[in-house]
Design a protein that fits this description.
This protein is mainly alpha-helical. The protein has 4 domains: 136 residues, no CATH class; 103 residues, Arc Repressor Mutant, subunit A (Orthogonal Bundle), CATH 1.10.10.10; 78 residues, no CATH class; 89 residues, no CATH class. It is built from 19 helices and 7 strands. Strand 6 and strand 7 form a beta hairpin. Helix 1 crosses helix 2. The longest helix has 44 residues.
Length: 579
């Protein structure tokens, strides 16, 4: 029988020592205080809570027979005479999960396989070795307590590789990241046989590096394929634009780069950085030999050789400064005609008032803007009323000189002061119509702020002026007879102003009906022409009635009128002004 070779630990004391006493409150294996929680089989929720002690005791005995127990674990201190299992149960032994994994069934089978392999190498026929004491050298102890990846021990917990899946994945990750140093360590054997230990963060860092590398390679491949496809589409777009008849295209490199970026995003490629315009230009010039690049300040223009001369000529003709001067001169011409022609509102809107209120030059310019300057378009123009409306609003909102804005806290622009000489029929009609239909000041002022109507105050002033004119006419003719009368309207004798509710009995002055009617003769207009209301004299209310109105709505009985009285006309009772 061949002899067994054993490495003698020179640091181990030859004299027998008494095993230390076990602290059953600490881990059974390492006897150290760590942050890792302790596991007690008695507290297990399994049906056989004490089975953990049976497995642990049997494995420790077998590891001791194989000589694989470290010096920190001595069976003498775990056996109080009744066996290791009975002692564990009596003291309710605890251990760390990581310590228990070092002595489970899987680790026991691997230890037996390694022992059989080493015995076969030395020609041993006895596969069951006897009990032996295991010793360690100082160098082996140092390497066994350091991380396989970083080479440091530190204060963090070291985990031992227990499965071949970890070894396979580590080798794959090392090849993906190209870590030659790690691959050299792995060439010494599998990590399980080397009893490699590692920090959790070191192993996870390797996995993350490998994952990032693979994703970057896949992303680069996908981005490269999509980039070539988008470049081909961009080249076809430039060629098709160049082949169009009557065009000499000039492309801005910045616009092409934006188009390239947008198309890449549509294809699902998320670009981490801005597209390199110079590299894109070089790729385009390589694909299109007839394309040339020209720099203009910060812009880069791309054009074909045969189109460069024509493009430069058109650029010289279409000078932006010249166009701006033309626009300014056109505005001066139109404004001169706008302020020469002045017209004021006279209380009515006769036919053709819209055409007469704006100059023909302004209407012609608006028509050219709407339909185009071509004579063919102007001959069949269908926007005559739209042009008149826009021209009226332009004249209504135009001023000879803008007001200077003073130092105010708010940043709102100053209100436009509309001159009465610039009032056109459209904004006047809109203001009067809204006031007559809605009586809402806010709506009228809102349209006034938008430049579409006259102000509410201006509406009231026009109403008062028209009422005063009617009263002046009645004073001259010495007769008051509203056109439309309604019977059975209660008379409010306390009212001091003329309203429709006061119209029930009227007696025009006549030689055939003398009496107190002479008292009401006199001016009825207000003293202030700018006032917004019409007031009647108080002695008018004391005039006795002499004419009864027919019950029929809107009509007066001619049979009850004197032969020398003037006939009655109609009056709109829903309005408070005479029209």
């Amino acid at each position: 029988m061949a002899k067994k070779f054993q490495l003698v630990d020179t640091f181990e004391q030859r004299t027998p020592t008494t095993p230390p006493e076990t602290n059953w409150k600490l881990c059974l294996v390492c006897q150290e205080e760590t942050t890792e929680s302790l596991v007690c089989p008695v507290l297990s929720k399994r049906r056989d809570p004490g089975s953990g002690y049976t497995t642990m005791a049997a494995n420790l005995v077998k590891f001791d027979e194989l000589g694989k127990l470290p010096r920190t674990v001595q069976l003498q201190r775990l056996d109080e005479g009744q066996g290791v299992e009975a002692t564990m149960v009596a003291h309710q032994a605890k251990w760390h999960k990581t310590c228990m994994l070092q002595y489970n069934n899987t680790m026991l089978r691997r230890a037996e396989k390694r022992l059989i392999a080493s015995s076969s190498a030395f020609g041993s026929t006895d596969n069951v070795p006897g009990k032996r004491a295991r010793t360690h050298s100082s160098e082996a102890t140092t390497s066994g307590t350091s991380c396989f990846f970083c080479g440091k021990s530190g204060t963090e917990t070291l985990h031992e590789v227990a499965t071949f899946q970890v070894d396979t994945r580590v080798r794959k990750c090392a090849a993906q990241v190209g870590d030659n140093e790690l691959m050299a360590r792995l060439s010494m054997g599998d990590m399980v046989a080397l009893e490699a230990k590692y920090h959790s963060k070191c192993l996870l860092a390797l996995y993350y590096r490998a994952k990032t590398t693979v994703e970057a390679e896949q992303k680069t491949d996908h981005e490269g394929v999509m980039s070539r496809i988008v470049l081909a589409e961009l080249v076809l777009y430039i060629e098709e634009t160049h082949l169009e008849e009557g065009t000499a295209p000039v492309f801005r490199l910045a616009d092409l780069a934006k188009l390239y970026t947008t198309r890449m995003e549509q294809l699902g490629v998320a670009l981490c950085k801005k597209v390199n315009s110079t590299r894109l230009k070089e790729r385009l010039l390589a694909q299109l030999p007839g394309l040339r690049s020209q720099s203009k300040g910060r812009d880069v223009l791309l054009a074909f050789d045969e189109d460069i001369g024509e493009a430069l000529g058109k650029a010289c003709e279409q000078d932006c400064d010249t166009e701006a001067v033309h626009l300014a001169r056109a505005a001066q011409i139109v404004r001169r005609y706008m302020f020469e022609d002045t017209d004021r509102f006279r209380g009515s809107f006769p036919g053709g008032c819209q055409e007469d209120s704006v100059p023909n030059v302004l209407v012609a310019m608006v028509n050219m803007v709407l339909d185009g300057p071509s004579i063919k378009n102007q001959s069949h123009s269908s926007s005559r009323q739209a042009a008149l409306s826009i021209a009226q609003l332009l004249k209504f909102n135009s001023v000879k000189q803008s007001r200077k804005q003073g130092a105010t806290k708010t940043q709102e622009p100053p209100a436009v002061r509309h001159s009465t000489s610039q009032e056109t029929p459209l904004p006047t009609y809109v203001g009067l119509m809204l006031h007559a239909e809605t009586r809402k000041r806010g709506l009228v002022d809102k349209l006034f702020s938008l430049g579409l109507s006259i102000s509410y105050d201006r509406v009231l002033r026009l109403s008062a002026q028209m009422g005063n004119s009617v009263c002046q006419l009645y004073r001259i003719e010495q007769v008051v007879c509203p056109p439309t009368l309604r019977s059975n309207v209660p008379v409010n004798q306390t009212r001091g102003s003329w309203t429709t509710s006061d119209v029930r009995y009227l007696q025009p002055p006549s030689p055939a009906l003398p009496g107190p009617l002479d008292k009401i003769r006199g001016p009825w207009t207000t003293r202030d022409p700018s006032s917004n209301s019409i007031h009647m004299r108080s002695h008018l209310l004391a005039a006795p009635p002499s004419l009864r109105i027919s019950p029929d709505y809107g009509e007066a009985s001619t049979a009850m009128c004197a032969p020398d009285l003037p006939s009655l006309s109609y009056y709109d009772a829903s309005r408070s002004i005479f029209l």
